Amino acid sequence: MAGLKLKTHRGTAKRVKVTGSGKYLRRKASLRHLLTTKSRGQKRNLKGAAVVDATVNRMFNRLLPTK
């Protein structure tokens, strides 16, 4: 008898990308609103993706079992 299938957490799958080496990429926060009070350099540093910290990888492995 086969075991239960593991389901992907769809909310996490939409927000996180898995690289070829198995790391997780995420978007940076604080770039949605109230942008007029933030400096140009601060907004520039918030652009692009960031690598998820290694201490959280175990949680992401459970949320995204098939990735």
Give a quick set of tags describing it.
3 strands; 67 residues; alpha+beta
Task: Describe the model.
The chain is α+β, with helices and mostly antiparallel strands. It has a domain at 23-28 and 36-67. It has three helices and three strands. It has helices at residues 10-15, 40-45, 57-63, and strands at 17-18, 24-27, 49-51. It has a three-stranded antiparallel sheet. The protein is elongated. The relative contact order is 0.26. The mean pLDDT is 94.
Mean pLDDT: 94
Structural class: alpha+beta
Shape: elongated
Strand order of the largest sheet: 1-2-3
Order of helices and strands: HEEHEH
Oligomer class: single chain
Q: What's the gyration radius in Å?
A: 16 Å
**Span between N and C termini?**
24 Å
What is the strand tally? 3
Task: Explain the layout of strands and helices.
Layout: H1 10-15, E1 17-18, E2 24-27, H2 40-45, E3 49-51, H3 57-63
Antiparallel strand pairs: 1-2, 2-3
Describe the structure concisely for a colleague:
By secondary structure, the chain is an alpha+beta fold.
